[in-house]
Amino acid sequence: MKEVFPHIQQVFGEVKVLESSPFPSGMAFPIHRLKLRTPEGPLDVVVKLYPAGFQAAFEREARALQTLPVHQVPVPELLGTSELADSSALVMEWIEGCPLMDLLDQEGWMQRFVEQLVQIHLPVETLQLQNRSEHAERWHSRFENGFQSQYAGVLAWVEQHLQDAAALGPVLLHQDYHPWNVLVRPAGGLVVLDWDWSVGDPREDVAWTRFILQKASRPELAEDFTQGYCALVPEARDHLEVFDVLAHLRWLQMLDRPSARGPITEEIRQWIEHLKAETHQLIQTITGISVTQGN
C-alpha cells in the first residue's frame, strides 16, 4: 500500500483509501484495487505500478489508453498517470465483470473474441500515434542482441521462411491478446487490458494467442480461434507456423528477463527452466533445429 498511495495523491490529491488489495496478474506488473472516498463520492480504481527501469512500458500503455478510444477500441478508462523517482503508475477505472475465458466454451463467445482482435488490427495509417514510424520495426529487432546470438539458427530459419510469405500489415498489435486479458462487462461489452502494443504483421498476435491457449492446455480452443480468425482474414493462414516459432522465441526471451515483481525464488527458477526446455522442444518440432545442441 505504501508504494501505491503517493501515486493516488498525485492523481487525486487528498483522498481517503477505504480498502486496498493486490490483484493477481501472473508474471506482469503489480496491480492493486483501491476503494477511495473522494470529494465527489466513492470511487473504485485500479493502480498498475511500473518499477524504475520499466518506463518505456508505462509510456506505451498510457499512450494506448489515451489514443485507442478514438478508434472505438474498448480499453479501460484512464483516470490519470503518475511518475515518481522509483516508479510510475496508471490509474484506471475498476471494471466489474469476468474474464472472457470464463465464457469461451459457450456459444458465440469465441466469435466475439476473434472479431475483437480483427478490430484491434487497425492499419497503421489510421492511427493517431506520435512517432509511429519508431514502432514499425522489423520482427528481429524485438529480440535483444544476446538472445539473437543464442538462437541465431532458429532466427535464420525464420528469416528464410518469411521470404516466402506475403507480408501483411503493418497493423496495430496488442502483443498479449488472450481471453484473460479481455473482460466482459455485466451488460456484455468487452474491455481489452494490458496494452504492451506495437506495430507489425497481424500473424504475430494470432500466433501469440494460439500459444497462450495451448499453454493453458486448451488446444481445441487454440484451433477454434485460429479457424475463426482465418475465416475472417484468410491470408493470415499463410506461413502461420513461422509466426508460431516467433511466439515461442518471444516466450523464451520473456522467461530470461528480470521480473517487475521482484527477486526470483529457486522454485520459480526451476519452473522457468522447465518451461524453457519444453519450449525448446516445441521449436525443434516445427523447425527441426535442436536448440539445446547449439544453433
From TrEMBL:
The keyword Transferase applies. Keywords: Transferase. The keyword Transferase applies. GO terms for molecular function: transferase activity. InterPro entries: AGP_Transferase (IPR051678), Aminoglycoside_PTrfase (IPR002575), Kinase-like_dom_sf (IPR011009). Residues 36-236 form the Aminoglycoside phosphotransferase domain. Pfam families: APH. PANTHER family: AMINOGLYCOSIDE PHOSPHOTRANSFERASE-RELATED-RELATED. This is Phosphotransferase. The lineage of its organism: Bacteria, Thermotogati, Deinococcota, Deinococci, Deinococcales.
